[in-house]
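User: Can you help me understand a structure? I only have the sequence.
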Amino acid sequence: MAVEYELLYLVGESKESELPRIRETVEKMVTDQGGVFLPAQTEEKRKMAYMVKNEVRGMYIARRFTLPDKDEREEKEETHPLTRINRALQLSKDVLRFLILSAKGLPELKAIERVERVKTDNRSGRYEKRGAVRPMPQAPVIAAEETKTVSQEEIDAQLKEKLDI
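Assistant: Let's start by predicting it. Here is the structure, written out as tokens:
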């Protein structure tokens, strides 16, 4: 019985024009070891969390493939085909990073829906430093006709009334 694996590899943005050739090379590395690719594939161009070999953005490609079980392999060699695939990918100048996992228990391989965020332009003169004090909002201005004039005697009477209580 064949064992299913998932291969995720990263190709830098500078090699995007060579992507078809790189895909063929990676597929050949796997098929030379007896691997058979399954039709599902995901591909996504993203910004990386950190710079890898002077690349900031890259293309993530995930593919599933099967390898024959130990009993099904024609050649009874000591090294496992995954070891040879792993070594070939490590030596590849085109693949920045890669990961090979057993697909047992992994979810179905499909594209991830992403929501595009609108970039805001902070250069509009409204730049604030972190922790900057913002001006207080202005108190509402009361129109002159709404204000009552109160005499000093009325104020004294109101104060006396309040303090006597």
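Now, to help you interpret it: The helical segments are 19-31, 81-91, 152-164. The chain is about 20% helix and 30% strand. Let me know which part you'd like to focus on.
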